[in-house]
Amino acid sequence: MALDILLKSLKKEAEANGGVVVRVHSIQHSVSFLMTALCFGVALEEDVVDKIKNVQVGLLSIVDNRYALNLWPKVALLAHCKVTKLKQLRRAQEDLLIPIIRARKTLAAQKSEQIGLMISYVDSLLKLRVPVDGVTGTTTTILRAKRGRIS
Q1: pLDDT tens digits, residue range 3-23?
Q2: What highest taxon heads this organism's lineage (predicted)?
Q3: For the whole model, what pTM was predicted?
């Protein structure tokens, strides 16, 4: 699937630019498809993959700059627009990914007896169980909150 997308992307770019192709863009595009297929176990539509890629790139560009916020707390007040942008991107990320995760959870439950279902990264995360025997802490609380949001 990813190879087909790579070839299609290379041909499309070559036709649009008179035979000149910047391979990096096409390879990044096909790797995005490959990673989402590994993560979710199914090939997603091109526009969904592009939206996921754009949100992830936006988050990474803000996260790289967050270290400055930790070093100079007073400067953090000046970076309020970045915090607002981060919140918007996190909301967009959740709006994109949670429906896909829920659909995968439903599909995995329906096809649990069938052998042909590819095991994905999301499947392994959904099978994680947080121990309840006296384990406390921030990580446990965060994991429970995230699982509650997906369920």
Answers
A1: 788 888 888 888 888 888 888
A2: Eukaryota
A3: 0.69
